[in-house]
Amino acid sequence: MTATNFFIKPGYRTRSQPAYFADIHDDGVIWQPEVYPLAATLAYQYECRYIIDIGCGRARKLVALHPQFEIIGLDFGSNLEYCRTQYPFGKWIEVDLENYAGTDIPPEILSNAVVVNSDVIECLVDPTKLMQLIRTYLVHAKVALISTPERDLERGYQDMGPPANPTHVREWNRIELTALLSSEGLRPAYCGLTMSNDKDKLRKTSLAVIPGSSLNPSEVRDLGAFCEQWLAASPEMREAANHKYLHDLAQMEAEVALVNTAVQSITAAPSLLEIGTRHIDNGRYDEAFEILTGALRNKTESTPIPAILFQLGRLADARKLNDDAKELFYQAAVRDVEVVKNVIDFYIDQVARARSGQ
User: Fold this and answer.
1) Rounded distance, CA 312 to CA 157, Å?
2) Which residues contact 270 (CB under 8 A, 6 or more apart)?
3) Is the pLDDT reported for residue 278 higher than 80?
4) Which of 3, 49, 189, 348 has the highest CB neighbour number within 10 Å of its CB?
5) Helix 339-356 to helix 305-318 angle, to the nearest 10 degrees?
6) pLDDT reading at 246 higher than 90
7) Is the bond preceding 37 in cis, omega lying within 30 degrees of 0?
8) Which neighbouring-strand residues pair with 54?
9) Model confidence over 163-186: pLDDT tens digits?
10) Are 320 and 298 in contact (CB under 8 A)?
11) In what order do the strands lie in the sheet with 143-149?
């Protein structure tokens, strides 16, 4: 995993000639449904007027943010022609993202903007120019959001490419993506998972949130914490926060607490088991291991040891530690026969994923 192969695992096969992504299909499914709402939320937070979408396609999600925001889309070919014809209120810039050398957007606009790059990087033979462009924008822009499919979750840990989608050159897992972006000076304040679409609502898309140069270290930490909390919040919590157009990232926590109080008369704090399970579901494996093993070390009479062992088995499987996963599942099952069904369901799901090529 080096810069020469864009930090993807050794032996992975790329597609040398991807098909042009003509964004003409509208089957009612919204892909990456959380990316643009989060971009809008951050634009409200930083009091920005502009949303800049690099690789906007036909811009359906971008134009939904108008007139609350001024919109700028970058693309080429039939996608850009469509945008210019259908959405004259936007600014549309033609760009070849593999050979782009300039910004074409003045600093006074960039400093008042949030940048989006949603599911584009995987379509480029050489994504270097794209990352350089984003880095140039972030000299002035407040923040950039970059999303791309999480290969291990979408295709399975054994996938060696090329991607199933003919418009994709390569796909990264979350660790590889973080390494790639960081190597180009795009160190994420947050890199986690977001929903791939609004139909199955599975979190199989990586989302990296990159801070602009104007943010200090404390603001970068606040940005990362805010994005993690926003993505974990319910739609009702997000709606409550957005309506107030928050100006302080730290206020999100108070807003969430107020909504919880209104919705539930008694709000119980999540258990360590629930937190660890959530971390596994969101691909935060190191955090999950720390939480779950800590729960075992500090166990009490109420500690659900079989359930924790089962989640550690899931974690071991995600890390491809197959023997450890089997032993943990066994230890969980012998302690509680009810866990046997969970183990069986887990392996049934794994077999189904393997057959479907995920």
Assistant:
1) 18
2) 278
3) yes
4) 189
5) 20
6) no
7) no
8) 74
9) 999 999 999 999 999 999 999 999
10) no
11) 91-94, 70-75, 50-54, 113-118, 143-149, 205-211, 190-194
Q: Residue 333, CB half-sphere, CA atoms under 13 Å: how many?
A: 14
Per DSSP, the three-state class of 267 is coil
Angle between helix 217-232 and helix 35-45 axes, rounded to 10 deg: 140
- Mean pLDDT to the nearest integer, 115-126: 96
Mean pLDDT of the chain: 86
- What tens digit of pLDDT does each residue of 185-242 get? 999 999 999 999 888 889 999 999 999 999 999 999 999 999 999 999 888 777 766 5
Cβ burial of 9 (10 Å; 0-12, 13-18, 19+) is middle
Q: Are strands 113-118 and 70-75 parallel, antiparallel or unpaired?
A: unpaired
Residue type present at position 7: F
The Cα angle at residue 342 between residues 339 and 346, in degrees rounded to 5: 145
| pLDDT recorded at residue 254 | 53
The helix/strand/coil state of 279 is helix
The DSSP result for 76-126, as a single string, is: -HHHHHHHHHH-TTSEEEE--TTT-----S-HHHHTTEEEEEES-GGG-S-
Res 251 pLDDT > 60: no
Three-state DSSP class for 144?
strand
Q: CB atoms < 10 A from the CB of 84, how many?
A: 14
The pairing of beta strand 190-194 with beta strand 205-211: antiparallel
Start-to-end CA distance of the chain, whole Å, equals 22
Pair type for strands 113-118 and 205-211: unpaired
Please give the share of the chain, as a percent, with pLDDT higher than 90: 57
Strands 205-211 and 143-149: antiparallel
- Given pLDDT bands bounded at 50, 70 and 90, which one contains residue 335? confident
- Contact by Cβ (8 Å): 62, 116: yes
